[in-house]
Specification:
The chain has 104 residues and is mostly helical. The chain contains 1 helix and no strands.
Length: 104
């Protein structure tokens, strides 16, 4: 439909279907406002959930880091003990060989 001027030259102010169109537009505006309000509430809830989730993830990460440090220390201790045992056994074997070959 072509644009209708605000003050048409006709004796009546607007075409007959204009009031129905305006009513539809007003209804669309009301539903749009309601939808925007619902979206805003949902976004607020999502923001709260996201902040809560991030806090929980941060705490979980800290616990995981503490567990990793404890595991690393345990593994380092086992490796050092194993290395010390191997050095001790090697020295013992050399001592037995030195005694057997009468080097000492």
């Amino acid at each position: 439909m072509p644009d209708t001027p605000v003050d048409p030259p006709l004796p009546r102010s607007y075409p007959s279907d204009m009031e129905a169109r305006v009513a539809v537009l007003e209804q669309i505006a009301r539903t749009t406002i309601a939808a925007l309000e619902r979206l805003e509430r949902r976004m607020d809830l999502l923001g709260t959930d996201l902040r809560t989730g991030l806090d929980q993830q941060r705490a979980s990460t800290e616990r995981l880091a503490a567990d990793h440090r404890a595991d690393f220390r345990w593994l380092l201790g086992v490796m050092l003990a194993g290395f010390g045992t191997m050095i001790g056994l090697m020295c013992g074997l050399l001592g037995v060989m030195a005694h057997g070959f009468h080097w000492l």
